[in-house]
Every structure is written in structure tokens, then in C-alpha cells.
Amino acid sequence: MVNGFVVGATLTDKGSGYTNAPSVTIIGGGGSGATAIASINQLNGEVTSITIQNTGSGYTGPTTITIASPPFPPRTATGTSSLVNGFVVAATLTDGGFGYKTPPEVRLVGGGGSGATAVATVLDNIVNSIRIINPGIGYTSLPEVRFGNPTHPLRAGVRLTLGIGNAAGKVRLTMDVMSGMRYQLESSPNLNTWTPAGAAIVAPEKTISQEFDVNQVGQFFRIKQAP
What we know:
By secondary structure, the protein is mainly beta. It has 3 domains: 1-71; 78-147, no CATH class; 159-225. It has strands at residues 24-27, 32-40, 47-57, 64-67, 78-84, 87-95, 106-109, 114-123, 126-137, 144-147, 159-164, 170-176, 182-188, 195-196, 201-202, 207-213, 220-225. The protein is elongated and about 75 Å long. Residues 152-160 have low confidence and may be disordered.
């Protein structure tokens, strides 16, 4: 910021999974009118830069630059198997999932037999094929095809829903997140200064809910992925 104008922006996290340039918003700082656009790398889906289009005016403090989330959250691939005379002869994708940087582990579970193995390939963050390496033996029913989770989950956005807590002076936050990822909830009185609200947590489910004390009017909350 120079003389009340927003003159530049620095990326702190490039994200991934972007197929088109995401929208960029600039808030806080006491001024108005500043706008920016983002550029992405089409090969890896990362944001490469933020360019200020309009510097705005009247800014007296730090601004917050927010980049919209990728279009698709990570999800695990699914598939089905085929049997002939007790051998697993093929596996078919039913959903290629999303967010895979490397081929996931494939396991063939159940079905009464043993020894069947398979491998997957990935294209553009999606599982695009399954190949049976060993058909195994002795299968009497179709084994379940299980894929590993996306190896490097995308840094997708999360959603907060605010509700009234079970006691006076408390709020309940319901958060849509990615299970297994670590998150830190933060609070702010002005959208500029953020402090941790409780300890970082590893999400056990895709939706988690917590209650927090609210000690002032106009308190803001945000949640972000933690190291």
C-alpha cells in the first residue's frame, strides 16, 4: 500500500485445482475501490499471480485479499470389479474422483478370494483408468474396489454457519471441511487482525461443530487449513 492506494499483492498460498481464473476480493483497510484479478497455471491448476486492476483510494490499514475456492472439492475415486471363474478379470471406474496428484493405492477387498491386485493412473487430478495386475484366485463374489484418498488434498474453501449457542454469550459454528485435514479457527474484531480461537483441530468428519464465547459485538470468524 502506498499513500492510501493498493499497489500490489503477494501470494501466500498458490492453492491447486483451479481450471479457470478465480475471482479476487479486497476488503478492509478503510478505503474502497481496489480490485484485482488472478492468473493460473493451466497445467497444475495453481494460482501464479494477483494483478491489481484498480488501486482504489483512502486505505489507511492492511487489507485482506481473498481468492475464491477451486471449483471442485477433493473426493475419493470409486469403482467396481468383474469376475470370471473366481478370478478378478477387470475393474471399472464409476467415479474418477478429484484432487489426485499421483496415482492412489487400489485395494480389492472381500469376495472370498485372495491375491488380486490393481493399479490406477491419473490425468488432470482425476483417476482415469484401473488395470488388474494379478487376478487372484478363489473369488466367489465381487470384491470391493477401494481407492486411496487424494494424495495431496486441494486447498479447498470451507464454509462456516453461525448459530446461537446453548448458553448466553456463546455462538455455535458449523463448519463444512475435509475429513482428516487440520484446521485453525480464528476470530477478529475488524477483519484485519486475526487471532486463534481455540487450538487447531484435525477434522474427524466432513462437518464439525464447535461452540465459542463471544465477548464483543461485531466479532468475525474464519477457518483455514493449518500446518
